[in-house]
Amino acid sequence: MRPLSAFRAPLILLLAALCSCLASCGGSTNSQGAVSGGQPDPGIALTQVRFITPPMGWNSWNTFACKDTEAIIKSVADAIASNGMAAAGYQYVTVDDCWVGGRNPTTGQLYPNATTFPDGMQALAAYVHSKGLKFGLYTSGGTNTCAGIAHGTRPPSYPPGVGAGSLGHESVDAQTFANWGVDYVKLDYCGGSLTAFPAMRAGIAATGRPMFLSINPYSANPTLPTNFASDGTLYVPAYADMSRISQDISAKFTSVTSIIDTSAADAAWAVPGYFNDMDMLEVGNGMTADQDTAHFVMWAMMSSGLNAGNDVRSQSAATQALLTNTAVISVNQDALALQAVLDTADSSGSLQVWTKPLSTIGTRAVALLNRGTTAAPITVNFSNLGLGGSVQATNLVTGANLGTVAQSLTQTVPPTGVVLVKLTGTDPVAANGALAVQSWIWSAVQSGTVGVKVFPGGSPLPTGASAAGAIVVHGKNYIDGMTVNAPAQLVYRLNGHCSTFQSDIGLDAAAQGAGSVDYQVWADNIELYDSGIVTSTTPIKTVQVSIAGRNTLRLVVTDGQDGVTNDIADWANPSLVCS
Ligand code: GLA
């Protein structure tokens, strides 16, 4: 089964363009004279992501739970349209659980609770649209919604109909939602079946309406492995635009930090067009101002969806200012859409530096996060980030210009708080020749490190690399390359001056004849190459793609849908042709 392309819109024309470019791109000899394994592999059709940046909006659950009504949703839409949130980028107004009245036995369609949503969902969607906003709706992948399941016997205060989920009705529900004008589907799990997720994607695709699909495989599903981005059979980024990664958030700093850690562990799964959802925001719901800021900043840094979960009609000026801080939001909405990764932490783990490369060359967003109980200085060393030159620093929360600094920046950070800075310096830009000796600007690996073997022997390793053993694929020895444990990703700046990326690919000898992976090559959020499933018996493939005019190159090795055990994979003799 093809992990990605089966559900992403194929760009046939671009494929044709690539093929003609490849034909004229010259031979398969890399810059060091190493001949790769034959004709370039065509891979699977090029794909384009549905949504490049994470969704922003509001969701009813954290404040209203089962007390949501049409009147509340309308007044929330009014508030978002007029209080600066819409202007700051909040788009989706999502009705969470408890809107369902039941399923019509004749038509098979869901209908809303007539008491709480008397005018129906089509009228409500039209109202939200009239405010310049988009409309989101909840359903579940079970026979019940979560309010029906999680509470066992439905409390008398709950409306009827919570027992109608979408399992087995995904197509008809997707069509009903499309008819109503839904723009965003939140698909919960709660005692359901994981098959509901791809079925809903297929249902949405059949409607032709570009509805965002946000899934939650975790609700009432405590046995699910912490990382569900692939459970060994389903590869989530193939069908979901965003997936929850944790149990439900609460307005406590311990909940916030635990979700940060979970998201960090899942960073290597987040390919372009797929976001790890850290859950709806609890900003404005009772934490301290510093904690709210740390929460909001880290959700922005980790490219999570930003769905406000407070009562935006009556929020404090401080909450409103935080939620509409466009400098912080621009970090979340950066077109490169990389998730922040942990740079360093002190020995207690409470003083942390998180880094997220931004799309403008030479820029990083850096969060200095203090999880402890006393104020403390936290230092970011620019060399760790691969950032050179004199570095200009700005505090993105306050807007304060921190001046030009050399080598490192230290800020005092309040307890359970954050300082978010933007750094502008000089980036390593990829150069002509072997890629293994070059520095990436971002890597995410779920386990182990990226092992690099360089040629000639003794060349310095890129920052963040460890020395790999020999690169051996099917008994063939390579002079250089990167060995990764899937899922793993590496991102390089190209800055528009390279024309071709080439590499041999295959499972490393260390996979011991087992394992299966999927290789993907992305540039600027376009998937240029997808290998499909590569196992230890798949002959060596040669990837050769045009990267002319591209600014970033992203090399992904992900699961081959049988779990990641033994998924030790090589980029063998990877090279660039650059001017
Ligand atoms: C689950 C989800 C929540 C919310 C409720 C609704 O708990 O994780 O976000 O949708 O269900 O019942």
SSE layout and pairings?
Layout lengths: L11 H13 L22 E2 L7 E4 L1 H4 L5 H13 L2 H4 L3 E4 L4 E4 L6 E3 L7 H11 L3 E7 L5 H5 L19 H11 L3 E5 L7 H12 L4 E4 L26 E3 L8 H13 L9 E3 L11 H13 L4 E3 L8 H7 L2 H7 L8 E5 L5 E7 L5 E8 L5 E6 H4 L2 E8 L5 E5 L2 E6 L3 E10 L6 E2 L7 E4 L4 E4 L11 E3 L3 E3 L2 E3 L2 E5 L2 E6 L4 E10 L8 E8 L2 E10 L5 E6 L5 E8 L8 E11 L1
Parallel strand pairs: 2-3, 2-11, 3-6, 6-7, 7-8, 8-9, 9-10, 22-23
Antiparallel strand pairs: 1-30, 4-5, 12-13, 13-14, 14-19, 15-18, 16-17, 16-19, 20-33, 21-27, 22-26, 24-25, 26-33, 27-32, 28-31, 28-33, 29-30, 29-32
Bound molecules: alpha-D-galactopyranose (GLA).
Strand proportion:
25-35%
- CATH second-level architecture of the largest domain: Alpha-Beta Barrel
Which structural class should the secondary elements be placed in?
alpha+beta
Head-to-tail CA distance between termini: 38 Å
CATH superfamily of the largest domain: Aldolase class I
Annotation, overall tally of beta strands: 33
Number of domains: 3
Number of helices: 13
| Radius of gyration computed on alpha carbons | 24 Å
Question: Which regions contain 5 or more consecutive residues with pLDDT less than 50?
Answer: 1-36
The top level CATH class name of the largest domain: Alpha Beta
Principal-axes geometry comes out as: globular
Strand order of the largest sheet: 10-9-8-7-6-3-2-11
Stated plainly, the CATH topology of the largest domain is called TIM Barrel
The average pLDDT is: 89
Mind describing the biggest β-sheet? 8 strands, parallel
Q: How much helical structure, as a percent, in the residues? A: 10-25%
Bound molecules: alpha-D-galactopyranose
